[in-house]
Design goal:
33% of the residues lie in helices and 7% in strands. It is mainly alpha-helical. It has one domain.
Length: 114
């Protein structure tokens, strides 16, 4: 488990100034499971997910999106951008309405721009 302090410039930026909304958090954690033997992948994945499940109730609820896996789902993406998600959807609808850039932590474009 990697634990990164959120200090310096990251802590001085307002929660609405960039997409990442957890500027008030003190730390960001990353749970990593690595083994050169592919036969252990299922066991390691389960261990990581169980570890995350145990810690999550004590977290802020979201994540730094670059630390997320590709398949964590839209609810997790929304939780990570918190109050900034709706604004990001509108931007995405304006500049990528066809959702071409949908790999990783996708922000689904808003249905229609007003």
């Amino acid at each position: 488990m990697h634990l990164y302090p959120i200090t310096g410039a990251a802590a001085r930026v307002g929660a609405e100034d960039t997409p990442w909304a957890y500027r008030d958090a003190k730390y960001s954690g990353v749970i990593v499971g690595v083994d050169p033997d592919p036969r252990n992948a299922e066991k390691i994945t389960k261990w990581c997910k169980d570890y995350w499940e145990g810690l999550h109730p004590h977290s802020s609820g979201g994540a730094y999106s670059n630390f997320m896996m590709n398949d964590e789902g839209q609810a997790r993406v929304k939780a990570s951008y918190k109050h900034n998600y709706d604004r990001l959807q509108k931007i995405k609808a304006k500049y990528d309405s066809g959702n071409l850039f949908r790999v990783n932590q996708n922000i689904v474009p808003a249905k229609a721009m007003v």
